[in-house]
Every structure is written in structure tokens, then in C-alpha cells.
Fold Endonuclease/exonuclease/phosphatase domain-containing protein.
Amino acid sequence: MVLGEASSVECRRTLQRAWQASSSEARTHEQLEEQQQCRVAAPAEEYARSAGESKDAVARGMEFRLTTFNLLAPCYKRMHSEVSTPVGGVGTGLLANRAKGQRTARESEFDGVWRERALETVDFICRHMSSSDIICLQEFWLDPAYHAIFQSALEKDYEFYTVKRTGLKSDGVAVLLRRGKFDVLSQLGLSLSSIGNRVALIMHLRESGAGGGEVGEDMILVNTHLAFPHNALDRVNQMSQIRAVTDTVEGVMVEAGLPTMTPRVVVGDLNVEETDPVCGHLGRNGFRSAFTSLHRERRVITHRNHRGEEVMCDHVFVKAPGFAGRRRGDSVAPATAPEIPGLVPRLCENVSVEEALVLPGGIDAAEWCPNFSLSDHRPLTVRLKFPPQ
């Protein structure tokens, strides 16, 4: 049972259309691949294009809500023993297979099972993330039918941008941008390393919809999913991956001619806690955790991994002038409607984190919620407010 309030009739109808679209294969594999090729892997030098537009108009600052969510791709979700017959196959029972040392089946092998979870996930997004201007997804399965379920239900309100992991991996990262909220000046699908086939999607955005002589602010957004630290080599690889992210972001800034005050936001499943050297590297490069800046003394759980460890590995890091991640009480704004009693929006000089919480709201995040079955991650959402550049 998905947690949260009852979904709207419109959302339900949209989900029905999504099921029909995926079942009839409304979008072929070739069409989706063509869309993806058009949307990603733009060379870094293309960032300079359109970034040099005149900004003589009055700037107005920028405010938006962003949510990050690792979906647990069906190609990685291990199945329980009660499900034993893949589509078109003969089931022998997964427990028996384990006893024989065989590979545990994955959800992607059971068509009806992964479709049901995909529809429930879209329903959850409609009910709990509809106020998000940016949705960053990791482990987004790029199977055409799976993709169609999400796009059919959400494309009315969001534009989709994806980049596939390299090699034989069938998932990737996706960014959903609210229509009319941002202009995408350029984008780059970045391969972080050949080991683990990790990628990042780097986008140069400008807030759109300005009027009365105003112009939207620029921002660099990164959505990524770093390697899981199985061993010491993976930890070295993680550091290489995060360095590639920060180095490329700064290169993009230079190529686009953006001022140093331009906000940079790194989002995703970093597969480490904030005390890890990976996050330490971000800190040394001027990034600060949006969640920690507001809830400095509070640790939450966003992931229960395959080892049974409960961790906070999903992050939103911000680099902007004045964003120093100050401690509670250093500088705060009046409380408006805090999600958690006693917590109020935190001002970091001119940049403020208005809200930061784990979804679904109202459920304690101090430990893993066993009733949340959509994924082995819980979404993290923040509301950020930036001053004029």
C-alpha cells in the first residue's frame, strides 16, 4: 500500500492512460532512443551557445522546489520467494534456486510485477511531488514500456531529460523540469568512469517566465548516482567520480561565461553519508548540504541498502555566494509553516533553504520506514531561494 493521501481523479485517469500506452507500446524503442540522443551528450563547448545573451534587464532572484529520488530500477530489484514464474518462463521457486546457487530473479523478469510498481510510483509522484519544479531520478529504467508509463502520466507538466549509463547497463538518471519554469540552455551527458558505468547529467538552466523587463537567473544542475562502496577500489572510484563532476561543472561555467556567483546544485544518490570524503570534497569546493543547513543536528534515513544498513546517502548540495551552511540560530527567518515543530527557514546570508524534508511527510525518518515499499530509497525534497545574481 502506497503511503499518503488519496490521489486525485485526474491522476488516476492519467495512470490508466499510462498503462494503456505502455501495453500498446505507443512509443517504440527506436523513438525513445532518438529522443534521448537529441537530448543528451551535448559537448561542453555548446554551453557557450546562448549563454552570452544580453542580461541588461533587471534580475529577479530564483526560487524553486527540488526533489531527488532513487527509484530502484526493476533490473536491480531482487524478487522475494513468493514470486517464482517470470513471463514466458517456467517457475521453479526462488528459494530452490538460491539453494542451488543460482542467480536471484529480478523484477524486470516479471512483466506484471514491475508494471504495477511503476504505476504506484507514478501515483506517488503525482500525490507527493506535484509541487516540485525539478525532479531528479536515479535508477530510471530506460526500457521503452517503463519509460512510457512515466512519460505518459507526467509529460503534461514536466519535460523529460535522460542519460543512460554506459556499457550494458539499462538504467540511467533522469531530470524532470516543470514546463514553463526553466529554459534549458545546454546539457551534457557525462561518463564518470568506465568502472561501474556511472554517469551524470549536467544542465545549464535559466529560470523562464520573467516579465516586466526582468530576466531569469542561471543555474548549473547536476543529477548523478555514484558507485556503491563495496570495497576500497570502489571508494577510490567514488572520489574519481565526484572530482569529475566538480571539474566538469567548473569547466562548464568557464565555457558558458557564467559569473562565479551562479548557483551550482549537485543532486542525487552519492552512496555515502555526509561525513564521507566524497562529501568532504564537495565541501572543500564550496558546496554545502541543503538539508544539513536547515536541520544541522538531525540525521535522517533515506536508504536501507542490500546489506541492511540504514543510511542517508541521498543529497542536495548547493554552491552559491553566501551559502555557508550556518548552524541553527546564526541567522533565521520568521517561521511560516514549518514541517517539523521548532524548525524554521535558515538564511545563509542571501541564500535560504526554506524547507527540507524526507517524503512522504509526516512519517518519522529517523529510521527506515518498513511500510514504504516503492523503493529502497525515500525521496528528499528541498525548497531553495536565491537572491538576484
Remarks:
- The chain is about 25% helix and 25% strand.
- The chain has one domain: 39-72+132-386.
